[in-house]
Amino acid sequence: MMIVTTEQVAGYEVSDVKGYVKGSTIQTKHIGRDITAGLKGIVGGEIKGYNEMMTEARNLAVQRMVKEAEEKGANAIIGMRMQTSTVMTTAAEIIAYGTAVVIEKR
Fold first, then answer.
1. pLDDT of the chain along its 106 residues, tens only?
2. For 56, which DSSP code?
3. Looking at CB atoms within 10 Å, which of 11, 27, 29, 96 has the fewest?
4. Strand partners, 103
5. Could you give the CA distance from residue 96 to residue 104 in angstroms, rounded to a whole number?
6. Among candidate residues 82, 83, 78, the one with its CA nearest the CA of residue 98
7. 104 and 8 in contact (C-beta within 8 Å)?
């Protein structure tokens, strides 16, 4: 599955538009990560636990988006975007979305 943030893929032509696809997940904080984050807030530095959690969440959202595109018969996703929002004080939603298409080499 080719995934691009652009509306076109160099060297390819869109032969069919399958439609909007998305994948999302909601992640919550973990007490161990909160303790580490609190300490990092005092001394400064990267909060690796949260960074890892968000990387996993983004990967899961993209995997779910790809699955939906494959189910529609697409071989690419164009115009892909990611967004995050706070669902509650201890949880965030990550959503990946784009347009599922069929592309062919020119």
1. 999 999 999 999 999 999 999 999 998 865 555 545 455 455 566 666 777 888 999 999 999 999 999 999 999 999 999 999 988 777 889 999 999 999 999 9
2. H
3. 11
4. 14
5. 24
6. 78
7. no
Three-class SS state of 6: coil
Q: Which residue has the tokens 């001394």?
A: 43
Q: Specify the amino acid at residue 62.
A: V
Which residues touch 106 (CB under 8 Å, ≥6 apart)? 11, 12, 13
Across the beta sheet with 76-88, the strand order is 2-3, 76-88, 91-105, 12-28
Q: Give the per-residue pLDDT at 3.
A: 98
Q: Which residue has tokens 């080719």?
A: 2
**Distance (Å, whole) CA 32 – CA 4:** 35
